[in-house]
Hints:
Elements: E1 6-11, E2 16-23, E3 27-35, H1 37-41, H2 48-70, E4 79-85, H3 89-106, E5 110-114, H4 115-121, E6 133-138, E7 143-148, E8 155-159, H5 165-175, H6 183-192, H7 214-230, H8 236-261, E9 266-270, H9 277-290, E10 294-295, H10 299-302, H11 307-318
Parallel strand pairs: 1-4, 4-5, 6-9, 9-10
Antiparallel strand pairs: 1-2, 2-3, 6-7, 7-8
Helix pairs in contact: 2-3, 4-11, 5-7, 5-8, 6-8, 8-9
Amino acid sequence: MKTDIYVLGIETSCDETAASVVKNGTEIISNVVASQIESQKRFGGVVPEIASRHHVEEITVVIEQALTESGLKPADLDAVAVTEGPGLVGALLIGVNAAKAFAFANGLPLIGVHHIAGHIYANQLVQPMEFPLLALIVSGGHTEMVIMRGHGSFELIGETRDDAAGEAYDKVARVLGLPYPGGPHVDKLALASEIAVEFPRAWLEPDSYDFSFSGLKSAVINYKHNLEQRGEQLDPGAVAAGFQQSVTEVITTKAVRAAQAYSVKQVIAAGGVAANKGLRASLENAFNELQIPFAVPPVHLCTDNAAMIAAAGTQMYLSGVRSDLAMNGRPGMQLTSWNE
Ligand code: KG4
Ligand code: ZN
């Protein structure tokens, strides 16, 4: 009797074309990511039309490679999970259509996954989830805190009111003349610097779990302009360190307050900015002190990948969630619970 569940995951919401086979939602069998970073670097960011073209070129190869590396045949799979949204519409459509074609051709169930649910379930590839948990999602498009009381149950308690943390990182990197995507470069500079410029902290209302990063971004830009007007030299390390301290302190403080208020058993971090060394260290310290278990996936599972989509898709599959072949990419998709 077959008891293991194998799900093929597909992710094309932004600038990575990715496919992966995951066993039982927890074990990576294959994980292929074709990144467009080299190509998008020239433009200093993701150009949607170029992203779509890359996805079209790569998608079939990437799916085939994920299957070959898994050693499985389509008939061995139980379902196909794909990022349905949010993301760039043209980019999403490539993955969604590839998933629909694959599912139809092989008679497999199709499951549309929310990209953020994917980032959260990346943690299942490392260790089991303990509920209730606080998920802190910090990526290029999102900065959110979500309370989960069980699998597939999401309560959004806070989100960014303007820029996402990753967007602010990329913008500050640009101001400092660093290549795209800037997050890792700012992180490196910040850690190497012994001095830090003092930038403001956006706490918002005292009880708010929301975030705001546009004021901090403007503060960095103004700081640079002021120095330029005075003909003084900017110290990129000190700016990066000051910016990172502000982001890290606000995110850590709010996450700690939320974890305590909701009496969570575990805190998990997810998304590209969760790869940030400064943020990881700050969260680890804070939750160690409080003795609340804290987990964050390894860096390659923090940034966009398809194993996380397959992991979330497996949980949805087990809960009986299915999409039909009329599924479309949903650029503005909201994170809704599939279990209450
Ligand atoms: O999750 P992700 O791969 O894509 C989205 O769903 O948005 O996140 C990409 C973002 C980019 O803004 C990138 O600069 C940021 O994650 N990032 C980092 C680091 N590594 C990636 N930000 C800060 N520090 C890092 N080490
Ligand atoms: Zn992402």
